From TrEMBL:
SMART domains: DnaJ, TPR. Pfam families: DnaJ, TPR_1, TPR_16, TPR_2, TPR_8. Keywords: Repeat, TPR repeat. Residues 440-510 form the J domain. TPR repeats lie at residues 88-121, 269-302, 315-348, 387-420. Residues 36-53, 69-78 have a biased composition (Polar residues). CDD domains: DnaJ. Residues 1-78 are annotated as: Disordered. This is J domain-containing protein. Residues 8-31 have a biased composition (Basic and acidic residues). InterPro entries: DnaJ_domain, J_dom_sf, SRC_co-chaperone, TPR-like_helical_dom_sf, TPR_2, TPR_rpt. The keyword Repeat applies.
């Protein structure tokens, strides 16, 4: 009986020792930094874990000495943690290898595994950041870099990566703050100091470029944008800014090339908006609408796209209202509607060219030929191959006797649209230009061929006073040039016709010129001129074959 009792006591003591020994190991290994059990609930859990063996027999539990603060993490959990750490390090090592080979997607998978196994290692988040940077996903990369510094607030590469991502996203002011944090944590670094200085310069350049772009003053914008693109080649925002400037300059093909390269890497609402503008201004309405819809899918509140679509609706409405007013004969109303439409979208070159041409048609109906010529010129500047505008301007030049200008327009017209009708118009303009070179001083002064010297003097004084340059100081440059030209012609006419000798020579030359032109036009009719002499021997007048009042008696 005593032997049995002693065996039972020995067994009990052995089992008790079995419990105490792990407790001692937990106390020693607690230095590793694992979480301690610090409350009564945790104590109860630890008590339950060691209060019974596999057979279910209740064992004695002696709590540790008060000098030992709390029980430590179980050995099995520590072993698991160490295994996870090893696996995480292996995954990160493989991720780095793939990252160096440019396999960013595959590398990302391994860094994801590393983060799942050990979420408290900042370097693993930095690895994921590098992967996203390699894929051009700077927003995701920025999030990973921020997570790295949240895990370890002294992790300098995390702040540095944040700054790099912010620069690539076109947010240099925030990049300055990130570089400042990196510099503070590093204790001073020449490389980071240079990077901080560069970020400040980029921030300043961007402020100037955005200010000028919004104001519409594109004189120096391209200089700053090119500077920004050279300093931050990976920033899509600056490429989109350059494309927008090119759109404003009417260089749609160049802008389209840039924005398509951006969209191949990163589809943003701004890039899709510029892409839509390029297509719209190039005449592809359907394609532009698709791009605008995609931009709104990404950002339903994208202000630029919404504003442009609203302006497009207003432009189409005003243009149609102007067309209706023109067809109804309400020319003043049509003029006002076309003028209003021209202010809605100044960059819409093709549509505005049509609006200028339509307004020129209104000016012709109102008898304002000079205004019509100016509107046609505006239309041609916006669209150099606009046949209707070129034709209308040429006709207006003919009406205002600007034959040299009309000839140039008809020559252009024949190149763009070589039809028999256009070639005929060119011949007529050339013929009239030749005739106009024979200056009719009588016509300039507005007097008859048989006007007296007093009548010529009165006509000259009246016209000279009317056309004197001092009377047109506030006129436009074109009007000033026209009046100066007319004033000189009036002076030349008066000088010739007020001198009897010069007038006689001029009359003879003018008569011969008219006779030559008239005979040339009547060659097909086989006109014969018979000059009979009277018995007194004086020559017979030939006024019967020329317009009455255009020739003096020979």
């Amino acid at each position: 009986m005593s032997t049995t009792t002693e065996q039972a006591d020995d067994k009990e003591n052995a089992e008790t020792d079995k419990v105490k020994r792990p407790t001692k190991r937990r106390s020693d290994e607690g230095v590793g930094g694992h979480q301690r059990l610090t409350n009564s609930k945790a104590w109860s859990s630890a008590s339950r874990n060691v209060s019974s063996d596999h057979s279910g027999k209740r064992l004695r539990f002696n709590p540790p000495h008060h000098a030992v603060s709390t029980p430590q993490t179980p050995r099995s959990k520590r072993v698991t943690t160490l295994n996870n750490h090893r696996k995480a390090m292996d995954a990160a090592k493989l991720g780095n290898t793939l990252l160096n080979c440019g396999q960013h997607h595959n590398a990302l998978k391994h860094f994801n595994t590393a983060v799942e196994l050990c979420p408290t290692f900042s370097s693993f988040y930095s690895g994921r950041c590098e992967c996203y940077i390699g894929m051009g996903l700077y927003t995701d990369a920025l999030a990973e870099a921020k997570q790295a510094t949240e895990v370890d607030s002294k992790f300098v590469p995390g702040y540095q990566r944040q700054a790099e991502c912010l620069l690539a996203l076109g947010r240099p002011a925030e990049a300055v703050k990130a570089y400042t944090s990196a510099l503070e944590q590093s204790g001073g670094s020449e490389e980071l100091s240079k990077a901080l200085k560069s970020a400040k310069e980029i921030s300043q350049f961007q402020l100037v470029a955005e200010r000028d772009l919004h104001k519409g003053t594109s004189r120096h914008i391209m200089f700053y944008v090119d500077k920004l693109m050279n300093m931050v080649p990976l920033c899509s925002k600056y490429k989109v800014m350059k494309a927008e400037i090119l759109v404003k300059q009417g260089k749609y093909a160049d802008a389209l090339t840039i924005v398509e390269d951006v969209l191949d890497i990163n589809k943003t609402a701004d890039a899709l908006y510029i892409h839509g503008l390029c297509l719209h201004y190039s005449g592809d309405e359907k394609g532009s609408q698709t791009k605008f819809n995609r931009a709104l899918d990404l950002e339903p509140d994208h202000k630029l796209t919404l504003a442009f679509l609203e302006a497009s609706c207003q432009l189409a409405a005003r243009k149609e209202e102007g067309n209706v007013a023109f067809k109804s004969g309400e020319y003043e109303k049509a003029y006002d509607l076309y003028t209003e439409a021209l202010t809605i979208d100044p960059e819409n070159r093709l549509t505005n060219a049509k609006l200028y041409n339509n307004r020129a048609a209104v000016c012709v109906k109102l008898g304002r030929l000079n205004d019509a010529i100016q509107d046609c010129t505006q239309a041609i500047e916006l669209d150099s191959s606009y046949v209707k505008a070129i034709s209308r301007r040429a006709t207006c030049y003919m009406e205002t006797e600007c034959f040299e200008e009309a000839i140039r327009d008809f020559e252009t017209l024949c190149k763009l649209n070589p039809t028999p009708e256009n070639e005929k118009l060119l011949r007529e303009a050339t013929q009239k230009q030749k005739m106009s070179m024979k200056t009719d001083f009588y016509k300039i002064l507005g007097v008859e061929r048989f006007a007296t010297a007093d009548e010529i003097k009165k006509a000259y004084r009246k016209l000279a006073l009317k056309c004197h340059p001092d009377k047109h100081v506030g006129a436009s440059e074109d009007e000033k040039i026209a009046m100066e030209k007319k004033f000189k012609a009036i002076g030349e006419a008066h000088k010739t016709l007020s001198d009897p000798v010069e007038r006689a020579k001029y009359d003879e030359e003018l008569s011969q010129s008219y006779l030559k032109d008239l005979m040339s036009d009547r060659t097909n009719a086989q006109t014969k001129v018979n000059v009979n002499t009277r018995s007194s021997g004086t020559p017979f007048k030939i006024c019967n074959i020329l317009p009455q009042g255009d020739l003096d008696v020979l």
